[in-house]
Amino acid sequence: MKQLSKTVCVLGLGYIGLPTASLLATKGFQVTGVDVAQKVVDTINSGEIHIVEPDLDILVKSAVNSGNLTASVEPVEADIFIIAVPTPFVADQTETTKKPDLTYVKTACSAIAPFLRKGNLVILESTSPPGTTDEIVAEILAEAGLDVGEDIFVAHCPERVLPGRILIELVENDRVVGGINKASTEKAVEFYQAFVRGEVFSTTAKTAELIKLTENAYRDVNIAFANEISVIAEEEGINTWEVIELANRHPRVNILNPGPGVGGHCIAVDPWFIVDRAPQHARLIRTAREVNDGKPEWVINRVREKAARYKAPVIGCLGLSFKADVDDLRESPACEIAEQLQRENLGKLMVCEPNLAAHSQFELKSLETVIAAADILLILVDHRQFKTLKASDLKEKIVIDTRGIIK
Ligand code: SAJ
């Protein structure tokens, strides 16, 4: 693998930017990581981290100690700029379609424009609607007065890593790189080939943007199918997990896992970017979003039915994060359910989330405490700590297992 002693400036030190910045630093690049939050910058400069991700603490510490990674609130001049900032929805939308909010991308582009020099490469990794790299990124960068495409090169290379496996997938996954022109694509491909073991594929910027959205919409549609089957099965009194397990023994069937809904900042968000772009055609994609977004309410209803049997039930909620073994609460259906149960005051709520030290709304309890006290046990996340639970330990309780972990 080639080692290049180039300088890189990474904008956004979150779940993608920080692992990317520290990986590059340990591969010999001189990296400046930029974040708007001073606290994040200070934490990283002291060799610590502000997010939970396996082995990231070790990587950041060694990157910072080597002198190759420095965090800052301001961008610096560099050979390569990587934009890894969030692309959420526009806040407070009452519409049925949600619109992407590109403010952070625009702000990051404006922030680096004054630091651009001839020969620089700018890569957008943030998930973005088709056209963003060509129309928004390239146009803002042109404010630097350089010829975009000739003097500076611009490409989109969507991140594809799975939280919980980020450091492995950053290196192992194939990547799709789309430049605003051929020269941009070539420069960006060369850069990724220096540290990615997977294959790096070339395309256009707009195609790369749609590929990323397609990947997450594909997953969302398939999870929606599993969630729909689970509701149908449960209401028939049939065990969902048995249906899926045995249906999956057919050689051409591979149903995903139902759950309490779909969360995270990716799969619950990105399909809307397609719906927003093509509302008349994206019918299946929209319906999948609605099915998955409707699942928490269905789970809450099951709790309401069970709670009605008690005068003052203790409801134990296991898990708050959006998926197993992470501390990330973004768009988490588990959080949505726990918050709604608290609002409705159906009983005494007790919450266990082993990946968080504290939560602003819930007083977190140990697994043992919740299990001992709960009349109704609601399993919302399949954290490894919960997977050891057995049906025989929970005999006296009503168990609502949204993840199918109790055998
Ligand atoms: N989920 C289910 N059933 C399943 C699989 C997942 O209910 O069978 C739920 C999870 O519990 C979670 C949500 O879906 O709430 C999403 O979890 P995930 O692990 O499938 O994916 P993310 O959001 O952590 O990461 C996804 C990945 N995309 C794909 O797998 C196509 C990742 O590779 C992307 O980089 C990431 O989105 C992103 O940043 O876009």
Overall description:
By secondary structure, this protein is an alpha/beta fold. It folds into two domains: 7-198, Rossmann fold (3-Layer(aba) Sandwich); 214-401, 3-Layer(aba) Sandwich (Rossmann fold), CATH 3.40.50.720. It has 13 helices and twelve strands. It has helices at 17-26, 38-45, 56-65, 103-112, 132-141, 166-172, 182-193, 205-235, 240-247, 270-277, 283-307, 333-344, 367-373; strands at 7-11, 30-34, 69-72, 80-83, 121-124, 153-156, 175-179, 200-204, 314-318, 348-352, 376-379, 398-401. An eight-stranded mixed sheet has the order 3-2-1-4-5-6-7-8, with helices on both faces. Strands 10-9-11-12 form a four-stranded parallel sheet, with helices on both faces. Helix 1 links the parallel strand 1 (7-11) and strand 2. The model has no long low-confidence stretch (mean pLDDT 95). The protein binds ligand SAJ. Ligand SAJ binds at residues 127, 159-163, 215-216, 219, 223, 256-257, 259, 262-264, 266-267, 322-323.
Provide the fold topology.
Blueprint: E1 7-11, H1 17-26, E2 30-34, H2 38-45, H3 56-65, E3 69-72, E4 80-83, H4 103-112, E5 121-124, H5 132-141, E6 153-156, H6 166-172, E7 175-179, H7 182-193, E8 200-204, H8 205-235, H9 240-247, H10 270-277, H11 283-307, E9 314-318, H12 333-344, E10 348-352, H13 367-373, E11 376-379, E12 398-401
Parallel strand pairs: 1-2, 1-4, 2-3, 4-5, 5-6, 7-8, 9-10, 9-11, 11-12
Antiparallel strand pairs: 6-7
Helix pairs in contact: 1-3, 4-5, 8-9, 8-10, 8-11, 10-11, 11-12
The chain binds ligand SAJ.
